[in-house]
Specification:
By secondary structure, the protein is an alpha/beta fold. It has helices at 24-33, 50-61, 78-88, 111-120, 134-146, 159-168, 186-196, 212-220, 226-241; strands spanning 3-10, 36-43, 67-73, 94-99, 126-131, 152-156, 175-180, 201-204. Helix 3 runs parallel beside helix 4 (111-120) and helix 5 runs parallel beside helix 6 (159-168). The radius of gyration is 16 Å and the shape is globular.
Length: 245
């Protein structure tokens, strides 16, 4: 079965610059091994160097037709974020914008965040929001309500937010939820389908940070049907990305 991996990582993390970045050849081999139609990459270095990190990811995306990028943006740099959106989000290799909400100060509901989100409406691309706390989860829900024409992905960053985010976003129909092996047990996938329905759940392996076997096991060994499994790893991503069958 083919799949679309919604969250992979490229480049060295800001807190671990001495660690060798993930190898693009290994990423290409991973895509082949799992029959991936696309791997969607976030640039690790964009969290500390917005322009440089996204530029490096842009070059990486050129190495394989299956690679796509999340454009890392920041509520603290709204002018630069808008400039980068104009530069990259008109290109097919970039599928949307990613905001890393590490703390309440990074929430997209700040003045800078709303400036950038308002600018993103012209591109019609996805917006991925990480959530680390009740405050950042509330910010994601508020942003989805205020920018209802945009499609959002909530990416929980710890076990508590993985469980708490599901009932919280239930009524926000323009928010989908991403299952990540880093924070989700196998039974969480089935629970997410129960709470949100099978059309609002996608999956990310965290390739570049985690070994993909754990992420694949979370899907393959969960108590869901084959049809639901295909929805999560392929049909839902295609629908969100507006790709034809």
């Amino acid at each position: 079965m083919s799949l679309i991996d919604f969250q992979c990582f490229f480049g060295a993390r800001g807190d671990a610059l001495s660690v060798r970045p993930p190898d693009l050849a290994l990423a290409a081999q991973y895509a082949t091994d799992v029959a991936a139609e696309m791997l969607l990459f976030a640039g690790e270095e964009a969290t500390t160097d917005l322009a440089g990190g996204n530029a490096k990811l842009n070059e990486a995306l050129k190495t394989d037709a299956r690679f796509r990028g999340w454009l890392g943006l920041s509520v603290h740099q709204p002018d630069l974020s808008q400039e980068l959106a104009r530069k990259y989000l008109t290109r097919a290799s970039w599928i949307g914008a990613r905001f890393d909400q590490k703390t309440e100060n990074d929430a997209v509901t700040t003045a800078g965040g709303y400036v950038v989100l308002n600018a993103l409406r012209r591109y019609g691309r996805l917006v991925l929001l990480t959530v680390n706390s009740p405050a950042t989860l509330a910010a994601a829900i508020s942003a989805a309500r205020d920018f209802y024409s945009l499609k959002f992905i909530v990416a929980p960053q710890n076990e508590l937010m993985t469980s708490d985010s599901l009932p919280a976003i239930r009524e926000s129909v323009n928010i989908s939820w991403m299952a990540s092996a880093a924070f989700a047990e196998r039974d969480v996938v089935a629970h997410a389908i129960e709470v949100l329905g099978e059309k609002r759940v996608v999956w990310g392996s965290e390739w570049g940070r985690l070994h993909p076997a754990a992420a694949l096991g979370m899907i393959n060994e969960s108590g869901i049907s084959e049809f639901q499994r295909e929805r999560i790893v392929l049909r839902n991503p295609r629908d969100l990305l507006s790709f034809d069958e």
